[in-house]
Amino acid sequence: MKITAFSIKRPITILMAIITVIMFGFVSFFKLNVDMLPSFNLPMIMVSTSYPGAGPQEVESILSSPFESALLTTSNVKNVNSISSEGSSMIMLEFEDKTDMDFASMEVREKIDMVKGMLPDEVSNPMIMKMNPNMMPIMQIGISMKGKDLSSLSSWANDTLVPSLERVEGVAKVDLNGSRYQEIKVIINPDKLSSFGINPSQLAQLIASENINVPGGTIKEGDFNILVRTSNSFKSIRDIRKIRIPTPTGDVIKLKDVAKIKLGSDKSSGVVKINGEDSLLLSIQKESGSNTTKVSKGVNKALDDLMSTNKNLKVNSVFDQAEFINLSLNAVKTNAIIGAVLSILVLLVFLKDLKTTIIMAISIPISIIATFVSMYFSDMTLNMISLGGLALGIGMLVDNSIVVIENIYRLKKLGLSSYDAAIQGTKEVASAITASTLTSVSVFLPILFVDGIAATIFKEMALTVTYSLVCSLIVAFTLVPLLASRLITDDAFNKENKVIEKIKDKYFFVLKWSLENRKYIALVLVLSLLFGGLSLTQVGFEFFPTADQGIIYVDVTSPKGTNIDVVEKTLTNVSKKIGAIPEVETTASLVSDSESNSSIMLVLKNKKERKKSDSEVSDEIRNKLGNISGCKINVHSASSMMSMSPSSSPITISVSGYEFDTLEKISNDIIKKVKGVDGAVDIKLADEKNAQEIRVNINKEKAAKYGVTSQMVSQAIKQQLQSSKVSSFSVEGKNYDVNIYANEAKSSTLSDLLNINIFTQTNEKIELKKIATLERNEGYHSINRTNQVRTMTINANVKDKSLGKVVSDIEKSIKDYKLPNGYSISFGGEVKQMNESFSNLLLALVLAVALVYMVMAAQFESLLNPFIIMFTVPLAFVGAVLSLFILNIPISMPAMIGFVILTGIIVNNGIVLVDLINRLRLEGKPTNAAILIAGPTRLQPILMTSLTTILGLLPMTLGIGEGAEIQLPLAITVSGGLIFSTILTLVVIPVVYSFLDDTKNKLYSRFGKN
What we know:
By secondary structure, the chain is an alpha+beta fold. It folds into 6 domains: about 1-30 and about 350-495, Multidrug efflux transporter AcrB transmembrane fold (Up-down Bundle), CATH 1.20.1640.10; about 45-130, CATH 3.30.70.1430; about 135-180 and about 270-320, CATH 3.30.70.1320; about 185-265 and about 690-780, Multidrug efflux transporter AcrB TolC docking domain, DN and DC subdomains (2-Layer Sandwich); about 495-540 and about 860-1010, Up-down Bundle (Multidrug efflux transporter AcrB transmembrane fold); about 550-635, CATH 3.30.70.1430. The protein is built from 33 helices and 31 strands. Strands 1, 2, 3, 4, 21, 22, 29, 30 and 31 form a 9-stranded antiparallel beta sheet that branches. A 6-stranded antiparallel beta sheet has the order 14-13-18-19-17-20, with helices on one face. Strand 2 (about 75-85) and strand 3 (about 90-95) form a beta hairpin. Helix 11 runs antiparallel to helix 12 (about 355-360), helix 17 packs parallel to helix 28 (about 830-860) and helix 31 (about 895-920) packs parallel to helix 33 (about 965-1005). The longest helix has about 45 residues, at about 965-1005. The mean pLDDT is about 85. This is Hydrophobic/amphiphilic exporter-1, HAE1 family. It comes from Asaccharospora irregularis DSM 2635.
């Protein structure tokens, strides 16, 4: 080969080229972004609209329904889901994969604009947002400060802390939870106010009119234009107290005469406690494409700088994704290094020659370093999948070098010079090792037909393995023959390995017996396939392995309408109970501003410092909590990192139809059945009828008699029950809202509601009870719809079973349930994603098998030889399934990718064996004689290449280190399949070859063909 001859003639040139690649490789390595998993785009858009004061059914009919009708006509839209709750509508659009989301966003905006003009004035402008994985926080930090209450701390955090962190490179947004916003409370005395003939609406307008700062134009004075501004803005709370209010009788009173004015704060952004201490919680989001670990370092440095100037500032790192990423990636790097060392030791044990081992092993570091250059220019990141691809390929990187060096030495023994042997030896095997590499990488071509998350994972793995194998092929054509021509001695392969020789002798007799007793080998083959198929029915399935990140979430749902103080007290008690668990390091509780929903985030100690896994701690929490005061508890670990499901539960069952009562009955029936399924836990209906409401029924005749309209009634009730912002002002850079309250306690009784005064157009007042009655109802606090059909959702978690097994059992339990006409049941969440991804990967697997066959057919120029070699594929699959079954590991997306990769790897042993058998037969050897010579001859290289790959994967197979759960299914699949298939290949392939050759000869003789 010209490239080989050039390499041997120009060693300095090759050396400089290698140094250049290494230099660029290191630069690329340090410039690559670091993340847990590959970045991926969510083909989803959210439309959020608020309608203050409107109930769920009103929101459904006025907002969600017309929006859905318009949005369903959007190009490439798959599903339109909506949630109509009190005062807000949220619509989620799911698009086909590979949709141009920028164009889709524009089209959604056009559809919304078509409907917007028909909406009530109170409806906010719809907010359209493309969903992005980067919306999830990469860090959560609790802060408190000695000597400052939460109001002062909130002010400091908003003015100083948040801007400082948002200036850190890579930070997109900083959210602040638990803050107390200072406000000016104007708490009116309804009796005093009405005694002066003034209603709340008039008072609100008057306060707003007394706080103005409006430009009035310009005047000309000489050569200058001077701005004229009308300014009468509030400077202090005293200015508000002194506001003069004219009464209908002509008197003038001050605001303080009819209202109490004071500085206060509100829990409008929730209540946060870190380890039981009142705190603020910072959630840090990173910019798309930024380096998670660098962002984390930048944020921590900014916090250190602030702590150095604020000695009383206390910072508690609740969650830092970078810590888990660093631990996980370091574990993968360590495993890769150990795997490389083990692979090199295999070479040394077999060859017993240090120089030859070094020449072969040099392929590993150079190929890996060169791969980093390709990764950088492919805009990839260093993550669990890409590094896993490198770790997977480590043992395979020496395969080409082994073949090249072995052939070079063979020619040296025939008398060729080192120079000629290196060139000729490389040339002879060039097509073989190229074809072998092609079979290994051709399995990745089906990625073109794979969509969604499966494509993202598959692509990262495919590119890293392909880059590294292509680099190893180039090294085998250049550096290896160069070094071999100068370093390999004549006795490099003469050192007898007694163990290998004994194995060869034993193998010879086994092979001879097998050829003489082909029916028994056929029986073993059939039994293996049957046993593998049986094992497949017993292996569980899951979407993506959940790594033990040491984080557990406890969601506490209180009955709708529960007072925020009651929710806070409940959450404090729950935190104390679970905070006492030895494995728990930090508890962070958050009572959201929706009051009924709250959650606790538990951060566990490092894996090495605790005896229990996150799932075991979750079970302990469930046992400790049970049922708490009517609250619903949902305990779950950090959800699968590739899950796009909006639910935190892996199983969601949607019941679709039109009537609420029927939907609820069906849902409750399904829940009873699901509770009987082993492995299903935390089963609950997400849309229960638990929202208490009071319906005001207006007597229209009585209302008309007093000149009162429904809008007047609605406005009066709203003023009584809700605060309303009437103005705002700024003092020394701090902004204050001025809010009117009709009730200082912010709560009213039914009696208070009935006694509300409604002011007529003539400013007369009439009590509500004279024109209306009150009716207590229990309604739904949210209404869910999918493609314009109402749905109720049942959520469930999985315990001690695989996701696929639990779902299969649930399907069996409900298959005989008779649904009314117009109603249906469907599974969503991770189950839906798993089915879609597995369908894609199954197609990829079928195409991979076909491609491998076609590559081998082209190599051998034969249809029969590739067919013989393809028997290794089902054997490998049997070994992989048996390994997963024995180790109780479910088949997941990484395992499916492992099956695809295994297809390309496993045929190489068969290629080596069949190729030599064919050559010996061309030299005149009978079939069985050729087999008995080829088998023992190729035993050593087959064992070497298989063992280097298997031992290269050993650290991953043992599941060592943080995040190992992600790599484990892939490593088990590949190594298990390789071990089983290698053992049987050495016997089955020769037997199949012999049988098919005899069959071919019989057919030829029957039809008179030579």
